[in-house]
Amino acid sequence: MSLRDHLRGIWAIVEKDMRTYYLKPPAVSWGVVFPVAWILAFYLRNPGDFVGLLPGLVTMTALFSSTAAEAVVINFELRLGSLERLLLAPIGPGTVFLAKVLGGAFFGLLMSGTVLLFTITTMPVSANARVFPVLFLSLLAFASLGAMLCILVREVFEAQTLLNLPRFVMVFLSGVVYPISAMPTPLRVLARFFPLTYSVEGLQAGLSLSQPNTYSLDLLALSGFTVAFLLIGMRRFSARFK
Amino acid sequence: MGYPAVPPGSPTNLGRNGPRVKEASPNEAPELGAVDTMLKRGKMEWAIRVEGLTKAYRDLVAVDHISFQVREGELFGLLGPNGAGKTTTIRLLTGLLQPSAGRASVLGYQVPSEIVQVKKKIGVVPEQSNVYEELTVIENLLFMGRLYGVPRRKRRERAEELVETFRLAQRKKSPARSLSRGMRRALTVACALMHNPRLLFLDEPTAGLDVAAARALRDLIQGLHRQGVTVFLTTHYLEEADLLCERVAILVRGRIAASGSPAELKKATQGEPVIEVRLEKPVARFQNSLSLRLPGALTTAPNPGVLRIVGGDPAQALEALFSSARETGARIVAVNTLQPTLEEAFLKITGLSPTIMAKEKTR
Description:
The complex is a heterodimer. By secondary structure, chain A is mainly α. Chain A is 78% helix and 0% strand. Chain A has one domain (3-239). In chain A, helix 4 (70-80) packs antiparallel against helix 8 and helix 6 runs antiparallel to helix 11 (215-239). Chain A is globular and about 55 Å long. Chain A starts with a helix and ends with a helix. Chain B is α/β, with parallel strands linked by helices. Chain B folds into two domains: 32-268, 3-Layer(aba) Sandwich (Rossmann fold); 274-338, Alpha-Beta Plaits (2-Layer Sandwich), CATH 3.30.70. Helix content of chain B is 37%, strand content 25%. Chain B has helices at residues 32-40, 86-93, 115-121, 137-147, 152-165, 181-192, 211-226, 238-244, 262-268, 284-293, 314-328, 342-350, 354-361, and strands at 46-57, 60-71, 75-79, 101-106, 109-111, 122-125, 199-203, 230-235, 247-252, 255-260, 274-279, 298-303, 306-310, 332-338. Chain B has a six-stranded mixed β-sheet, with helices on both faces. Chain B has a four-stranded antiparallel β-sheet with strand order 2-1-4-5. A four-stranded antiparallel β-sheet of chain B has the order 12-13-11-14, covered by helices on one side. In chain B, helix 4 packs across helix 5. The radius of gyration of chain B is 24 Å and the shape is elongated. Classes of the chains: A mainly alpha, B alpha/beta. The A-B interface holds A 1, 5, 8-9, 12-13, 16, 19-21, 80-82, 84-92, 241-242 and B 94-98, 116-117, 119-120, 124, 126, 128, 130-132, 134-135, 143-144, 146-149, 191.
């Protein structure tokens, strides 16, 4: 099985998932409308520093959009039996899992890219080249986390519930709306275990809102989270069919 | 549809488990390695070889040391009631499950170690039609073509060919969710054929279909078989297996109870010959006359105007039949030799009631 065969299979699945599930109103509204509404709510509560909320807005959009339809593309297809159709193709379960992750990441890129573009063209921030690596790695980490959690449960509603837990915990503890530096020490330590923390930090540097002192560490942490979530997810996914 | 020519009819080969009807000689069943080499070189022999295949879960043995072979180009049926292990067997052979023990080769490749090679050459139709409901008929087919690496130019051509063959041309731009159950089933089969597989696995192909749709699908399966595709199907419809399959294996509680051609199974379980006579109208003295002429046979009247002669010499029974008719003035309208059905053979072989199979039909 050549790399080309795997890539062809991945792209076919990504495109199909995009057309079948992602580019539909529920995924778009959950992926974009929810983060925008959330950030606007905080802004209206405290209109002083909207620019400071922008990294949080972009990373939240990345988080919610990349995981918006994973419960559907994995658990719903498992339930319907259509996931087996993919597993019967000559590409292997690991490739199928990777395709599901990349589908989420690709949709997240479309949504968060749009929000980012709107942000840098309308707000007083200057984006630099650091934006792109941190956004790509964040999308991969979030999509891998979502897919890994989905494969732990059977039903769509279980997956949605399980996905909401890290999503909302991260929104509160990863510096999206409240700076980590102002948190008590135990919460500051806890925040280091969430990929969103490194996304927000990295994007602050990418939007020239902070010094890039921890930028390399942020990229390293996001890469580590991506690899760990992918490996665990692939293993669990393959184990389902043993 | 571009399939190779149908190989000539193959001799019957039988599974290793249970009361086989006929033993396969060593010449008929060479070692796995030799067979695999022949297949890889394109010489047709066994499409599937299974030896001692087992799938055990913590507290359940779903498939218990089964062994059988399927020739390339053959239409083979795995029969059994719900929970017998039919679907598990297909999942083991197609790489969706890992065996606990035993060996299997499909088209010359070992399963599961060479499963990617196997997957390139097989098509699988699961029990549940699992097409993508949001996609149209043609999009489903094109997606499958992409997944299996069918070149772009051939993909569209093949998809158009399949919608014609499966009578889906009128609905090719309709979403799969709008199709009837029979059409969705036909689309599921068509999807499995997009990459021109040499071997098609069909799990309960006609389950849940109405009579017309089931008949149309059976015709399609026979058509594929005529074009040289090896077909491995599971079914609990005994009459379907009798109609379609060249050979069958009966699976009960994870074990193969018997295997052979439907005719062989019926013959092996046949009891005494039965002749059925239909009269124009019931004649009271006819049965008595017949009983006197045939002391070694049992004469029964299951319905008014119908008599059955069980046992004895069939030639002598026929002679007695016409003599008694002349003597009593009875008018014979039909004489039939009753053959045992596959259902009766199933009953004798397994000791199970065919109603167990019927129960599954209503699920």
